[in-house]
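Risk mitigation, structural track. In case the binding assays with iron/sulfur cluster fail to produce interpretable data, a predicted complex structure has been prepared as a fallback.
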Amino acid sequence: MSAKGRISRRDLLKGSTQARPFLARPPGVSELTLKGCTRCGACVDSCPETILRLAPDGVMLNPEAGECTFCGRCAESCPETVFADDAPMAHEMGHVMEISARCFVEAGISCMTCRDACPEEAISIKPRVGAPFLPLLDAAACTGCAACSSVCPAGAIDAVRKDLNYA
Ligand code: SF4
Ligand code: SF4
Ligand code: SF4
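Fallback model:
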């Protein structure tokens, strides 16, 4: 996937005013349904992992804050129709994760933290001769849970837009 649509740590911290950064959302929220978000904050308060925030355009998921366990409490707490009701849409994220060039291995430092954190085994490690093992993320297997990005010591794993099966 291209770099277009990435949300970077810098964008989040500075609230970039350049091209609108891509923001990850909680499961079951699409760009269309997000229009119904009143920013009441009920979902943010309900999340046991404290990974939700209020962005100017509605609820967002901070991939660096922790792992989404797909518990569904955010959807249950929402008084509007922002979250999809039915599986599988209710469990689908509008993003997947992507490992960037900020990964420690690019600096010759060995690290497998993301591979070990992924509950879906979506990250594999490719051995290389004369260089640290390379982490490879299978976007097709990624649920967007953010377990990897929240533990990455380099802040190297970004959320990127995924085509949803619903609008
Ligand atoms: S599904 Fe649960 S863990 Fe995931 S964002 Fe919603 S409340 Fe938080
Ligand atoms: S956890 Fe981060 S630094 Fe470590 S291998 Fe994965 S992407 Fe690279
Ligand atoms: S976001 Fe994707 S790659 Fe990262 S831990 Fe979750 S399933 Fe694995």
